[in-house]
Amino acid sequence: MKTTTTPSTVAHNAMPPPSAVSSARSSRVAPHSHIKGLGLTPEGLALSDGGGFIGQMNAREACGVVVELIKSRKFSGRALLLAGAPGTGKTALALAVSHELGVKVPFCPMVGSEVYSTEVKKTEVLAEAFRRAIGLRIKETKEVYEGEVTELTPAEAENPLSGYGKTVSHVIVGLKTVKGTKQLRLDPTIYEAMLKEKIVVGDVIYIEANTGAVKRVGRSDAYASSYDLESETYVPLPKGDVHKRKELVQDVTLGDLDAANARPQGGQDIMSVMGSLMKSGRTEVTEKLRKEVNKVVKGYVDQGVAEVIPGVVFIDEVHMLDIECFTYLNALLESPMAPTVILATNRGNAVVRGTTDVISPHGIPVDLLDRCLIVKTDTYNREQIAKVVQLRANVEGLKLGLGVLDRLAEEGERGSMRYALQLLTPASILAGLSGRNQIEVEDIGEMNELFLDAKTSARNIGSEGGFDGGRM
Ligand SMILES: Nc1ncnc2c1ncn2[C@@H]1O[C@H](COP(=O)(O)OP(=O)(O)OP(=O)(O)O)[C@@H](O)[C@H]1O
Ligand SMILES: [Mg+2]
């Protein structure tokens, strides 16, 4: 890791030399980036090590059942509560559920404390989250021109208004499909839309006949390169005629519809969205508006144009909600269009927020608890902690020397798994400072002198009866 310390001596306009550091830093490693899914077999049984998860088999299987129920739309309006000690993977489980559901099912995560805002009512925040978790798949058959762009030539003409410069009078676009080719002569506004979408020859596009909206589908696979990794999506040459009727599928959420109807004047492009944010702080979505949106949606569903896809609301640290929110949650759960709700908490018996004397399990009133399926997450043993630490070390690209894993697992068992995971990065920096690229046991030892785990810190405070600032 020497390259980081050498001062850069690159001349001004020269390309910087490719360094090993830049590629290593290419992705930020988030605490849950090793979680890829629940890691279940097709029968729904948990593998002891799968999808980035180690152990916690019961909870994973339970989540697997819930995923199946959500996919078959039998779980909406119900709640799953993940309860367990801190650092036992509750948040990770919820993320895994969202991975398993895929991108088509809306997943709306929030933290309990998000409801407290000075501008918006608590219940409003909850209601909005619920609306964002109901998806709507709208199928429309539209007349389109689709094909691979073979030609894109703007025809220029003298500008009639000023003597200088030229304007585009029309644009000639050639589109090719498997069946044939067609040359279109299009309006300059469509040319602008094409420039915005950065369309070049070789892209597969479609143009809606009525509106002139242009959509880029991808790059024709005739142009596919031999790179292994690319951001480009390659699509085959479209079949059929260039001019045809095509079924377009659009995924939106009820939340999107509410927001769009609350400020109907705005356009689609980013500037007008930004502008409307600036102007009015936050636009109000009233209950009346929601009802109206619901009515329209219901109409679409009855006609068979749209399909409702109930998604998931995930409320982490749910004990942060107060009694008003809990009551409202009960009501939301019983509304006809309710998504699945996943709650997570690490509290045992606690006072329900917003009351002075109601103590209840997990800080959740019993009437809501009664509506939940509860899944408990277990604490990990030393062996499992070691596996998770190893997994994280791999994700972060750290090498562990002999005995380091045992030592960290021991720390994890004594303190908490989070503490063991948190020691990894500083220890790697320490190893780097002493010119090694591998973490050794002594690095961990030194880290332990510098940093305390939660339990040790609490014990210190306990024995000294508080810090000086408190004693004054
Ligand atoms: N079974 C597991 N396999 C792999 N990694 C895990 C497992 N359980 C937890 N982790 C990882 O441990 C760390 C802590 O877990 P997580 O944040 O999910 O805990 P939590 O239960 O949400 O805790 P809290 O109650 O404090 O919110 C995360 O980086 C998570 O990805
Ligand atoms: Mg958590």
UniProtKB/TrEMBL annotation:
Any one GO biological process: chromatin organization
GO cellular component annotations of the record: nucleus
Keyword ATP-binding: yes
Catalytic reaction(s) noted: ATP + H2O = ADP + phosphate + H(+)
Record's subcellular location: Nucleus
Record's keyword terms, sorted: Activator, ATP-binding, Chromatin regulator, DNA damage, DNA repair, Helicase, Hydrolase, Nucleotide-binding, Nucleus, Transcription, Transcription regulation
UniProt similarity note: Belongs to the RuvB family.
Function: DNA helicase which participates in several chromatin remodeling complexes, including the SWR1 and the INO80 complexes. The SWR1 complex mediates the ATP-dependent exchange of histone H2A for the H2A variant HZT1 leading to transcriptional regulation of selected genes by chromatin remodeling. The INO80 complex remodels chromatin by shifting nucleosomes and is involved in DNA repair. Also involved in pre-rRNA processing. DNA helicase participates in several chromatin remodeling complexes, including the SWR1 and the INO80 complexes.
Protein name: RuvB-like helicase
Organism: Pisolithus tinctorius Marx 270
